[in-house]
């Protein structure tokens, strides 16, 4: 018999429960990817994500070919595509992994019902999370709104069991009509992607290599180095996790193996890293239970907040031309590589929502288009956390000071110099506050600050106080 394995954001062959189950029950497997951005509601993949997707699909196809199969590519309406391929291959079942974006949940439920009505088996599995969002609840049987108790609960459920192996070979039915990858037009027509090309290796192999590098070079020092943007102190696995090229289960297993193989004296503490993956789970838990939060405040009090509206200010932020070095360095890193260090994400987000008092939705949307790891759950949590409007958020009155943050987390200015070439030869401590030397600004062409950080902080606190007073 024949089954279709519908690949979506699970672009790997190892630890792939849908593929594993399909292979156990069927002789022939058709690996399928359907490009259907119109089915993602308002959150079709942005430019950077599309770049990643192109390369990830190419890598998956190569891996499938090594196993005697190939990725069948289609685009258009998902249900019609599945039905057409069921007709042409005689497939009796479709297997896939669940996603948690509201538009995708609605679509998948409709597809599952339609296929079953037609007498076709439809099997969906969890492959993206340690724990399904509905499997974990408070003592009052409600969703969690606070991270620490969520994590305490989730942590007890984790097991570091060996993940599923990739199939050694696959037999696939002959089906014509598959599209060439270029037909999906995922790559930009103006080649702005060279920086991303240098920074990343999309695909399952790239993910495994990055995990190895992280474990060898950074895991032991993660708790200290994860806040230093000049260092490779974090794993940079976020885009690989988003596209499902690696699973949290695989990561947990690998970390636990390494820790238990090390001598007691050299055993790395894997808890701080697992806890960050816990934030990822929390983000998915929140998105599932509060599906309106990608665009609406979790904390409704913020519906009355006095945001400003200033397209020119937004553009200066997007272009990394605010005149505040750490903010501009972050925004340029984002544009160039499709990624930004977590500490810097918090600082640029604080600057946008507090010093410029622009709505967090503007920031979330820009990140959506420019991040290679743009992820509806994590991005929503990140923006609402910084803006103070989210679940378990930082309080609004905690405004990051981008100058002291740079002094603390980039004390030698290496990160600033890397991304602000016009200031590369500026001496410390002027590099942190270049406006203190007007001649330096004139010489370098670096802009004067668009706002006074101290004054705008006070204005933000004032607006927040007015919101609280109703
Ligand atoms: P590591 O430190 O190596 O962490 C490992 C993994 O844990 C990450 O890959 C990620 O999957 C998860 N993780 C770590 N921190 C967080 C967090 N705070 N929230 C949720 N998951 C986390 N992350 C995204 O994956 N996609 C986004 O669109 C996104 N948008 C963000 C927007 C803002 C304003 C902020 C403040 C944070 C955002 N994050 C987002 C979270 C975080 O910045 C990135 O996950 C992290 O920088 C990725 O780098 P890494 O893989 O080296 O992280």
TrEMBL record:
PROSITE patterns in the record, alphabetically?
DNA_PHOTOLYASES_1_1 (PS00394), DNA_PHOTOLYASES_1_2 (PS00691), PHR_CRY_ALPHA_BETA (PS51645)
Which positions does UniProt annotate for FAD binding?
222, 234-238, 273, 373-375
Any one GO MF term held by the record is: FAD binding
Q: What GO terms in the biological process aspect are recorded for it?
A: photoreactive repair; response to light stimulus
Q: Which Pfam families match?
A: DNA_photolyase, FAD_binding_7
Location of the Photolyase/cryptochrome alpha/beta domain = 1-130
Which residues are tagged with the site Electron transfer via tryptophanyl radical? 307, 360, 383
The record ties this protein, via InterPro entries, to: Crypto/Photolyase_FAD-like_sf, Crypto/Photolyase_N_sf, Cryptochr/Photolyase_FAD-bd, Cryptochrome/DNA_photolyase_1, DNA_photolyase_1_CS_C, DNA_photolyase_N, Rossmann-like_a/b/a_fold
Q: How is the cofactor bound?
A: Binds 1 FAD per subunit.
Q: Which SUPFAM superfamilies match?
A: Cryptochrome/photolyase FAD-binding domain, Cryptochrome/photolyase, N-terminal domain
User: What Enzyme Commission number(s) appear in the record?
Assistant: 4.1.99.3
* Annotated catalysed reactions: cyclobutadipyrimidine (in DNA) = 2 pyrimidine residues (in DNA)
Task: Report keywords, A-Z.
Answer: Chromophore, FAD, Flavoprotein, Lyase
Q: Which cofactor does it need?
A: (6R)-5,10-methylene-5,6,7,8-tetrahydrofolate; FAD
Coiled-coil spans in chain: none
| UniProt enzyme class | lyase
Q: What does this protein do, in the record's words?
A: Involved in repair of UV radiation-induced DNA damage. Catalyzes the light-dependent monomerization (300-600 nm) of cyclobutyl pyrimidine dimers (in cis-syn configuration), which are formed between adjacent bases on the same DNA strand upon exposure to ultraviolet radiation.
Which family does the record assign? Answer: Belongs to the DNA photolyase family.
This protein is called what? Deoxyribodipyrimidine photo-lyase
